[in-house]
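Final report, closing paragraph on structural work. Over the funding period we assembled a curated collection of sequence-structure pairs, and we close with a single example.
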Amino acid sequence: MLELNRSLFLGEGGDKRCYRHPADGSRCVKVLGDKEGALKRVLREVQAHEHLKKRGLRPSYLSFYLGQEETNLGTGYVFEYVDPVPNALEVMSPIELRKTIDDLLEECLRDAVVLDDMHLDNLIMDRSGVVRIIDGLGCGDFLPFCYWSRYLARRKVRRKFQGLYDRISRVTDGWARPVAG
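Its predicted structure, as stored:
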């Protein structure tokens, strides 16, 4: 059993707390919080990673899921640890940010990666300058057809990125553009 403590704490998202893996610094452990639906969302994310694995994909722009381990705080979901450049996306000019997100969109479209929750909080830039998605993969649809159709997966990617562009547009003087279909 992994012993997680305050010294390993990395941060907290909407419904998960993240800790550095105590035995392997290249990994992090996400532990569910108390919010309703947290387990459903993390299982959705695990399913998306398993789907990519079956397709033989391990995109460099994802913090990839590595498995489960029991911890003193409950079940831990282990992911690759991404060493972030603090506030890298927040201090970019709107033009740089748009280009960065456009590039990430193209990669997600190429790989037909199924996204559920696309927010700036789910993106970080690693020390090598690569923007990585650290959370928010998966499909919340009752019938997840996007796992079986790349066409539908790409439509979902465009829709989720459009939502991201719209949210960013509200705080950056309207630079967002529609995502071409």
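The radius of gyration is 16 Å. Helices lie at 38-54, 94-111, 150-169. We thank the funder for supporting this effort.
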